[in-house]
Amino acid sequence: MLSSSCDILSWFSKRDLAVRIGVFCSGGDAPGMNACVRSVVRSATAAGHEVVGINRGYQGLIDQNFFLNAKQQPIMGARDVSNIIQRGGTILRSARCQRFMTDEGVRTAAENLRQHKIDALVPIGGNGTFRGSAELVKHWDGQVVGCPGTIDNDLIGTDFTIGFSTAVETAVDAIDKLRDTAESHERLFLVEVMGRHSGYLALYTALAAGAEIACVPETPTEIPGIVAHLSQLQQTGKKSIIVVVAEGDEEGGALMLAEKLQRAECTFATRTVILGHVQRGGSPSPDDRMLATRLGDFAVKSIGAGATGVMAGEVNSQCVLTPFEKTFTEHKQLPQALIDLLECMSN
Ligand SMILES: Nc1ncnc2c1ncn2[C@@H]1O[C@H](COP(=O)(O)OP(=O)(O)OP(=O)(O)O)[C@@H](O)[C@H]1O
Ligand SMILES: O=P(O)(O)OC[C@H]1O[C@](O)(CO)[C@@H](O)[C@@H]1O
C-alpha cells in the first residue's frame, strides 16, 4: 500500500496525455455511487480526458451498453452529471453479471474496450467487482483504477467504503423507531442488517443505536452466553433489548437466532425485523458524498499518473492505492476496540 497521494503520484511516471476513461457501477448499489460518477466525470473533463459511462456494470461492458447523453452521444460530460450528487442508487445502474465470471465473458469485455478505444476504466463496486477487474487486466492492457462502493465496508485499503455511512444512518434511524415499541411492550428486537461476510455494518449500527449486542461473522455467537447476559440485564431493571444481527452471522440471520434464543429459554418476548434493501437506498450522507468526491477525483488523477490494477481508498485521511488482489484475498478485521466498547456499554 502506498502511503499518501503525493507518494503515489510521484511513484508513477507523470503522463499528461488525454485518455478515454470508462466508468461503471457494479455489485450492490450503494448511496454515493452517483457522487463518485460525478466526481470521475468532472475531474476527468477538467484534465482534458473524455468519459464514457457504461450501464449495468460488467454486463454493460459485454453488451456494449453505453450511457447516452442528451444528444444521444456515448459521452458523459460535466453537465450530464448535474443534480445527481444527492441521489441514491446509480444513474448508470448496476448488475451482478454471471457471464463476466467466465473466461469468454472477460475476453468479450476486453475486446469491446479495445474496439471503443477506451484507455482506462474506473469500476465502482465491492470486492467481487475488483476480483473481476483483476481478471480483466490479464486480458486488456488499459488501466483500471477502482473506487470502493458498497455498504458492507468490507474492503482492505480504505477505512470506509462509499455507502457505508448512509447505510449505518438508515439502520440507526430504523432502530430508534423500533426502540419505541421495544420499550412500550418490554420486548427484545432482533434487527438483521446486511453483511454477507462482514460485521462492520452490524457493529457500527449497534454502537450508534445503543444496542446491547451485535452478532457478527467475525466473532463467535454463543447462545447460552447471550441468554445469561440478557437475564442479568433483566434483573438489573432492563425492560427492552436491541440485538443487531449481521445477515452473515455464523448462527444464521435474525430469524434463526430468534428460534435459538427461544429454545435456550430466553425470557424476553421477541420480535424480528429484517431491514433488507432499505439499507442500500436513500440520499447519501455528507460523509459519503465527500468520500465519493475525493476518491473519484483521486482515481482519475491516479490514471493520469499511470496507475493500474489498484483500488483508490482513504486510510487515516490520506488517499492510497491498494492492489485489487488485496481487496478480495484479505478479510478486513473489525476493530477490537469497538467490539470491546460495545461490551462495555452493554451493562
Ligand atoms: N471471480 C470473478 N471473476 C470475474 N468476475 C467476477 C468475479 N467475482 C465477481 N465478479 C464480477 O463482479 C460482479 C460484482 O461482484 P459481487 O456481486 O460480488 O458484488 P460486489 O462488487 O462485491 O459488491 P457488494 O459488496 O455490494 O456485494 C459480479 O457480478 C461479477 O460480474
Ligand atoms: O440482493 P442483492 O442485490 O443480491 O444483494 C445482497 C447483498 O448485497 C450486499 O448488500 C452488499 O451490497 C450484501 O450485504 C448483501 O448480502
From TrEMBL:
Keywords: Allosteric enzyme, ATP-binding, Cytoplasm, Glycolysis, Kinase, Magnesium, Metal-binding, Nucleotide-binding, Transferase
GO CC terms of this entry: 6-phosphofructokinase complex
Source species of the chain: Novipirellula artificiosorum
Cofactor section: Mg(2+)
Organism lineage string: Bacteria, Pseudomonadati, Planctomycetota, Planctomycetia, Pirellulales
E.C. designation(s): 2.7.1.11
The protein's name in its UniProt record: 6-phosphofructokinase
Reaction(s) catalysed by this chain's protein: beta-D-fructose 6-phosphate + ATP = beta-D-fructose 1,6-bisphosphate + ADP + H(+)
Protein family according to the UniProt entry: Belongs to the phosphofructokinase type A (PFKA) family.
Pathway stated in the Swiss-Prot or TrEMBL entry: Carbohydrate degradation; glycolysis; D-glyceraldehyde 3-phosphate and glycerone phosphate from D-glucose: step 3/4
Domain Phosphofructokinase: 20-302
